[in-house]
Design goal:
Blueprint (H helix, E strand, L loop, with lengths): L7 E3 L2 E14 L38 H13 L7 E2 L2 E4 L9 E4 L9 E5 L10 E12 L3 E3 L8 E3 L6 E7 L6 H18 L11 E10 L9 E6 L2 H20 L7 E6 L4 E7 L9 E2 L6 E2 L2 H9 L5 H10 L4 H8 L2 H12 L4 H19 L10 H12 L5 H14 L3 H8 L7 H14 L1 H8 L6 H11 L6 H13 L1
Parallel strand pairs: 12-13
Antiparallel strand pairs: 1-2, 2-10, 2-11, 3-16, 4-5, 4-15, 6-7, 7-10, 8-9, 11-12, 13-14
InterPro entries: Asn/Gln-tRNA_amidoTrfase_suB/E, Asn/Gln-tRNA_Trfase_suB/E_cat, Asn/Gln_amidotransferase, Asn/Gln_tRNA_amidoTrase-B-like, GatB, GatB_Yqey_C_2, Gln-tRNA_amidoTrfase_suB_CS, Gln_synth/guanido_kin_cat_dom
Subunit structure: Heterotrimer of A, B and C subunits.
Pfam family, one: GatB_N
């Protein structure tokens, strides 16, 4: 079933799921949004808290220029409207991990307006893309964290995250299947990593999603949506959508009504549960933050942000395809910025694009998977890989010999040229030596020779194999084929 035709089968027929995502991405900055406190992950509780983060009386927030810059760069990367004038608002609510009693956010005038990204919902069909609209990106401060497992009767508060800068990236309700939502999150995380505005590490909480789901009969008005909060993996987002859509269909078909509420996803059961009924925005008593002037961005700042952007995944993918790389390989190589940078270095070292892409997608990825390493930890450098591929192109190594040399490179980190010389692995095109081996192979296999000359041409492969085996895989296959044809015709 294709993603555009994803349907929930209910007792009363087919239902369509409507999905929107609000992604909270932690801005890559060494300091918080309104204070100089550190943001490093994994610090001891309450060791990265300034007087501003703890809401001590008289403390005033000062915007961190780097956080604003990173949010603007992100907006530019998704082709969004950058608002030269934006404003911070106070969102008032009481919770134990929110020292101020309000969160500084941007409701009415966000930093970034309308944008969007193109996604590929089905990897097997890389040509079929879907555009997902993005409504806005606003900048806000994170709350702290309640710790319930430190004491039998008390909850502790860790304010290390309090005041950390977040970009809230709000999509339009344009997704119609779990796969589309997964593709959107994957692509968005990839863009954030290319830009360098967020590390995208969902397991560390630096990127998480609130998942809005509703169901309707195809073509009807939107139904009532629920919001499943703080889902921290792409797989869990897809599971939450699937469960929540089915739950809503069953509820409606049994005569119930979907209520607008906040829900939580349990990864252990794969189910969502109700947390609280959804508050309307006016309950938060939003108003402009009196301690902060509006943000006014001049053209020089915007131009600096624009000039700092790297080549982004879609542009890189198009460049790869134009160089003769298959759409599938281009998609694989551009999915993660680390992979794309490694591959670009391989091309810069002189490797031919199409052959290099096939080698990386099969040989290198296979080896790294076996070793449990990322491409950044590869024992083989792009320069070494380019040298290995060059030895295949110039005939020094056959494909099978290149595999042997690659295995040694993985173990030792040596250059391929050194391995070839030290171990005598050079492919031979010496016609005299090859002819002598062919003559010996034919003499030792008279029965097969007779069958071949009697019309059983499939035995040609047998003779090639025997010749290559006798020469330890070091004979040039092209030369072997040519000389064998002559010898067998004799």
């Amino acid at each position: 079933m294709t993603d555009t035709n994803y349907r929930i089968q209910g007792d009363t027929g087919e239902w369509e799921v409507v999905i929107g995502l609000e992604v909270h991405a932690q801005v890559a900055s060494e300091a918080k949004l309104f204070s100089g406190a550190a943001t490093a992950f994994g610090a001891e509780p309450n060791t990265q808290v300034s007087l501003v983060d703890a809401a001590m009386p008289g403390m005033l927030p000062v915007p961190n220029r780097e956080c604003i810059r990173q949010a603007v760069r992100t907006g530019m990367a998704i082709d969004a409207k950058i608002n030269a004038w934006s404003r911070f608002d106070r969102k008032n609510y009481f919770y134990a991990d929110l020292p101020q009693g309000y969160q500084i956010s941007q409701l009415y005038h966000p930093l970034v307006g309308e944008g969007g990204i193109d996604v590929v919902p089905d990897e097997k069909n890389p040509e079929a893309t879907k555009h997902i609209g993005i409504e806005r990106i606003h900048v806000e401060q994170d709350a702290g964290k309640l710790m319930h497992d430190q004491h039998p009767t008390r909850s502790y508060v860790d304010l290390n995250r309090s005041g950390v800068a977040l970009m809230e990236i709000v999509s339009h309700p344009d997704m119609r299947s779990p796969a589309e939502a997964g593709a959107y999150l994957t692509k968005l995380r990839s863009i954030l990593r290319y830009v360098g505005s967020c590390d995208g590490n969902m397991d560390q909480g630096s990127m998480r999603a609130d998942v809005n789901v509703s169901v309707r009969k195809p073509g009807d008005e939107f139904g009532t949506r629920t919001e499943t909060k703080n889902v921290n993996s792409i797989r869990f987002v897809m599971q939450a959508i699937e469960h929540e859509a089915k739950r809503q269909v069953e509820l409606i078909e049994s005569g119930g009504t979907v209520v607008q509420e906040t829900r939580l996803f349990n990864p252990d059961t794969g189910k969502t549960r109700s947390m609280r009924s959804k508050e309307d925005a006016h309950d938060y008593r939003y108003f402009p933050d009196p301690d902060l002037l509006p943000l006014e961005l001049d053209e020089a700042f915007l131009e600096e942000c624009r000039a700092s952007l790297p080549e982004l995944p879609d542009a890189k993918r198009q460049r790869y395809e134009a160089a003769g790389i298959t759409p599938y390989n281009a998609g694989v190589l551009t999915a993660e910025v680390e992979t794309a940078r490694w591959f670009d270095a391989l091309l810069e070292a002189g490797a031919a694009p199409a052959a290099a892409s096939n080698w990386v997608a099969s040989e290198l990825f296979g080896a790294l998977n076996r070793l449990g390493k990322s491409i950044g930890e590869s024992p083989v450098t792009p320069t070494q890989a380019a040298a290995l591929l060059k030895l295949v192109v110039d005939g020094t190594l056959s494909g099978s010999l290149a595999k042997q040399v690659f295995e040694v490179m993985l173990e030792t980190g040596q250059d391929p040229g050194v391995i070839v010389e030290e171990r005598g692995l050079k492919q031979t095109s010496d016609t005299g030596a090859i002819e002598a081996v062919i003559a010996d192979v034919l003499a030792k296999n008279p029965g097969q020779l007779e069958q071949y000359r009697g019309g059983k041409e499939a035995l040609f492969g047998f003779f090639v194999g025997q010749t290559m085996k006798a020469m330890g895989g070091k004979a040039n296959p092209g030369v072997v084929n040519e000389l064998l044809k002559k010898a067998l015709a004799g």
